[in-house]
Amino acid sequence: MGDLAKPPLSNEEALELCNQKPEETKDFIMQQTMYRIKDPRVSLPFYTGILGMKLLTKLDFPAMTFSLYFLGYEDNTPFELGTSSRTEWALSRKATIELTHNWGTEKDENFAYNNGNTDPKGFGHIGLMVPDVYKACERFEKLGVKFVKKPDDGKMKGIAFITDPDGYWIEILNNKVTTDIVAQCS
């Protein structure tokens, strides 16, 4: 992994490494983060009922035995699942979650995906911006959500980490509080 003791990039070096956005990429968007899920009957209620996301579209691939569920924070306009216009609309939304269900995994009680925070480490977490971390966490606690870190645990106060039904970490943060934490730790 190299020398972990090296100092971080300076602001100047970071800016230098991040070139101007090429004209050819002006219409690119960060559209989705994909999680593999064991059971949509468990994951969909978590992301919609607990985190407040909306189902944007659902796509089934019977020949390859998997389904995709796109979720995000969008309006609650009624729609019909499975239409090409709805699929096109959903795939044009920014910052969605794509839950991928490989059929049959829900029947294997020992089946689990690596969440990226256990060995071998890799992907870390997604983050949700909320108006009040403490109120959100009170609600999560009442709903039986599992915590990795509560807002007052550890050195970084005011942020939390919860897990979804598959063990993926979700950071719960507030932009003002997080800005203050960064200022204190810098």
UniProtKB/TrEMBL annotation:
Instruction: Name the Pfam families for this protein.
Output: Glyoxalase (PF00903)
**Gene3D superfamilies named in the record:** 2,3-Dihydroxybiphenyl 1,2-Dioxygenase, domain 1
- What cofactor does this protein call for? Zn(2+)
User: How does the cofactor attach, per the note?
Assistant: Binds 1 zinc ion per subunit. In the homodimer, two zinc ions are bound between subunits.
Residues in the active site? E171
What does the UniProt keyword field contain? Lyase, Metal-binding, Zinc
User: Which GO molecular function entries does the Swiss-Prot or TrEMBL record give?
Assistant: lactoylglutathione lyase activity; metal ion binding
VOC domain ranges (all copies): 29-175
Q: In which pathway does it act?
A: Secondary metabolite metabolism; methylglyoxal degradation; (R)-lactate from methylglyoxal: step 1/2
- What EC class does the entry list? lyase
Q: Which residues bind Zn(2+)?
A: Q32, E98, H125, E171
Q: Which SUPFAM superfamilies match?
A: Glyoxalase/Bleomycin resistance protein/Dihydroxybiphenyl dioxygenase
Q: What is the E.C. number? A: 4.4.1.5
Q: Which family does it belong to?
A: Belongs to the glyoxalase I family.
What name is this protein filed under? lactoylglutathione lyase
Q: Which organism is it from?
A: Sitophilus oryzae (Rice weevil)
